[in-house]
Amino acid sequence: MKFKKYPLQIRLLICIGLLMVTTPTLINDWFPLPHFVRGALVGVGLGLEISGLIKINRLRKTGASC
């Protein structure tokens, strides 16, 4: 399978989403975070990842070359 390079905006959405999902777990080891803050960060991170995947899917359907 050939790897296609996606636009910077889509890659940033997915990378920032991954960081927002994993960071609260790492921070919670040293500083206690309230459950609301952890849940909000993870929720926003998942939302960013999903929106990036939706944009990838739309890009593939249109057949636009990257």
Structure, explained:
The chain is an all-alpha fold. It has one domain (8-61). It contains two helices and no strands. It is elongated. The two termini are 16 Å apart. The mean pLDDT is 88.
Produce the secondary structure layout.
Layout: H1 8-30, H2 35-62
Helix pairs in contact: 1-2
In short, what is this structure?
The protein is built from 2 helices and no strands. It is mostly helical and 66 residues long. The longest helix has 28 residues.
Tell me roughly what share of residues is in helical segments: over 70%
List the helices and strands in order: HH
Structural shape: elongated
Which class do the helix and strand fractions yield?
Answer: mainly alpha
Q: Uncertain runs with pLDDT below 50, 5 residues or more?
A: none
Entry keywords:
single chain; 66 residues; mainly alpha; 2 helices; elongated
